[in-house]
Amino acid sequence: QRPYNSVAAAAARGARVTAAGPPAMPDVLLAVTLFGSGGSQLCGPAMVKTTPAHQLRRIIGCFCRWAGVQPESVVFHSVDGRALTPEATVAELSLSSGHAITAVLAPSAPLPSSSAQAAAFTLLDVEDSELAALTSGLMG
Question: Where are the beta strands (DSSP E) in the chain?
């Protein structure tokens, strides 16, 4: 009797069969826009590519590196107004692709970089941003 699937067929031929790892987590694209304390848009929106397992602090770090602002000077909220906990994961916060996040810059904080202010739209990747920061010495 012949096996019906390719894994069983390979095993029957004596080939080494290894179990596949867990399926890759789907990417999540979050729209992040930075506003001043008075409500004026300062930069963004930036689509930030992440995964459900990433903590919000990683998305915050990615966005703030791009915008040229300090993470401590920005408060992040869901578009419905609820505060977002940096330690929570994307999945725990029930954020899905297309979800909008508002970031509000503290009144005394310096404005974002001129390149971030000039970008009408950009796409960021959390992991690429972290790798770039590591190689340039920006992450501890």
Answer: 28-35, 41-50, 74-78, 100-105, 122-125
Token digits of residue 65: 């590196």
69-78 pLDDT, tens digit each = 999 999 999 9
Looking at residues 17-37, what average pLDDT do you find? 80
**Which residues touch 3 (CB under 8 Å, ≥6 apart)?**
9, 11, 12
pTM score: 0.80
Query: What is the C-alpha to C-alpha distance for residues 118 and 126, in angstroms, rounded to an integer?
Result: 21
Contacts of 73 (CB under 8 A, 6+ apart): 105, 106, 109, 110
CA distance 46 to 59: 11
Mean pLDDT throughout 81-95?
94
